[in-house]
From TrEMBL:
It comes from Folsomia candida (Springtail). Keywords: Heme, Iron, Membrane, Metal-binding, Monooxygenase, Oxidoreductase, Transmembrane, Transmembrane helix. Heme binds at residue 441. The keyword Membrane applies. GO terms for molecular function: heme binding; iron ion binding; oxidoreductase activity, acting on paired donors, with incorporation or reduction of molecular oxygen, reduced flavin or flavoprotein as one donor, and incorporation of one atom of oxygen; steroid hydroxylase activity. This is Cytochrome P450 2J5. It comes from the Eukaryota. PANTHER family: CYTOCHROME P450 15A1, CYTOCHROME P450 508A4-RELATED. GO terms for cellular component: cytoplasm. The keyword Transcription regulation does not apply.
Amino acid sequence: MVSGTVVALAGVLAGLVYFTFLRKPKWKNAPPGPRGLPLLGNIFQMDKFQHVTFCKWAKEFGPLIRVKFASLNMIVVSDYKMAKEMFSHSSFSGRMDFTPFDLILDGKLHGIINTEGEHWEELRRFTLRQLRDFGFGKGSMQDSIMLEVNELIDLIKENGEKPVDNIKQRLLLAVVNSLWAICTGIRHKQNDKQLLGMSEKANKAFDGVVEGGSVILFVRWLIYAFPKWTGYDKIKVALVDLADYMRKPIIDHKKTRQDDFDRDFTDAFLKEIAKTTDPNSAFMGKLGEDNLVTTLGDLYLAGTDTTATTLSWMILYLSKFPEIQKKFQQEIESVTGNTRPISVSDRPNMPYTEALIAETLRFSSIAPIGVQHRALKDEMYKGYLIPKDTVITANLYHIHFDPKVWTDPENFRPDRFLSPDGKIFKKHDALIPFSTGRRQCLGETLARDSIFLFSTNMAQRFDITFDKNGPENGFECELSFLLKPKRFNVIFKDRLA
Ligand code: HEM
């Protein structure tokens, strides 16, 4: 009798032969890149943190390199001008195929992050417009963020001067709440067990992919051949949980919504579904509802951990660089007299704060290789023919640490974003933490407002010191999709009591 292992191995071999020899892309003059193994390409040359390897190759081979992961061809761009040019081009605005990670799990793609073409454009345009209407960049958004900021400040005050070891988790809930208020009208309690449990499970499952060297992202058939070994079984459970969680508010909204008044994003989306008759539309019938489930999931996944992680880094930096914290607090006091909270309208008068946020986004580079794009058709770039389906990765980490672009990039120095007299904040074209071009982050306004309001109001209220009795990891990162700080403890001392 032929054993299951032999069948699986035969399948693996057949897969390798098919993908390597029968589906050769039509590279003509490919950009330079590292030599790899026959069939497998560069898979086993990757560090656990992929950006580390991409940065090493950028130094060796230049700003545009070609990498191969079995049958998958990738271009890695490590120059900000090239990243801007490529990502502004419609031919490079596709998305790498993430079908196995889609929330609906019916073999198709839904929502914004994973889709491309007309459905992506329709959903992205609608979501941007609605989120703007419901508050992005407006006073109402500020009100809902400030509600969370004040609650967080009260919680920290209650804790007294005991070390806080879970600031990231507290920030996460606060950030989820301000986003969820616009999306679904729901506000969670600080210790909401269901929400925390789901976030933890999803994070663990996805982090498992990274621990496995992200191989399954690039060599897809491994997922189907070895769902347990690759950790895909666990990811599926997390995806089903997440989809169920997103379905709940939709079911409630369907029962209570009224056509003449949209309470939030979910109401507006349901109304769009109800009025859509075009069978090709992303809002049509069942597809429309699946797109709503996934779009809520996208906003949750892309919008919460990212912002909370950036804020955690900022708290760590402030606790490690007390002189920078002092300058930050002095600017806050000079603008508000510490007699009122800071509001978004203070921003133009706070160049040091803007510089500190810019340096935090650069130095943490939490999404070090962004999200992979795909060439929608054969396209020439810089004299190279980039074949359709090539995956394109922007090496944001290298772009933010390139010594040709930044002076002393390894130092945390907000002053680099200031005029010599320190009075004017200077933007830098090479700072692109939200990526660039047609798929640039859709939540940048909300992320920037949240980072500004949380950090300024917390620093106005507290002196933040690093707890020397807690873990000391320098600025090391956890192994995860995002670059997250390893555990650290900080002490908050009330300065306005
Ligand atoms: C500090 C916080 C954040 C960072 C650093 C960040 C970074 C990014 C990056 C690098 C991308 C990939 C863009 C590309 O494909 O080239 C992205 C996409 C995206 N982000 Fe963010 N993001 C943040 C916060 C948010 C927030 C708050 C939201 C929503 C409320 C959000 C929603 C999205 C969505 C929906 C996409 C997919 C866009 C598309 O495919 O068209 N992000 N983000």
